[in-house]
Amino acid sequence: TATDGSGAAVNLAKVNVTIDGTTKEYAVENGQVNIGKLPVGTTEILVSVDDEFYGHAQDTTEAKVNKAAADVTVTPGNGTVTVVAKDKETGEPISGTATVVIDGGEPVEVPIGEDGTIVYPIDAAPGPHTVEVRFNNDNYEPVTKTVTVIVPKLTPIVEVNNTNGEWGTPVTIPVKVTDENGDPLTGTVLVTV
Fold this sequence. Notes:
Helix content is 0%, strand content 50%. By secondary structure, it is mainly beta.
């Protein structure tokens, strides 16, 4: 609030606002100045006026901006986990980082883009796995969610080639076993004659 030497309110149309060394002129509306969004944390703000009737005056204040709340959903899929991050108040998607920990193992940081969504494949043996997801964004409170993801068994592909042999000698049958991606599998193959 601007006042003159007698304490009476002064109606100003514009003031100068300095934040982080940058000064801009702002309109005063109903005794207030809208300076827009500030970063999370405490920001020192210098408000000054150079009025032709009253001269120069200034005052300093601090604005404290707290982290916002994020609405994060973590949904288990068929060998995947889907992470969706939104601003809790506006519902708008937010970017950040999802730190994924499978069965208490090494954390893996996965960037979440502007659409606020990732689908992360769980690279683990078939069966149930505990997946912890920690969402981080400098402007939002961190969120941690834990879900159980079932990794399905892969369907092996067995390829056997015809072979010829002679009576009385062992016959070798070429067998190739791969997963659905063409990667070789190891293990025991049961052959029925």
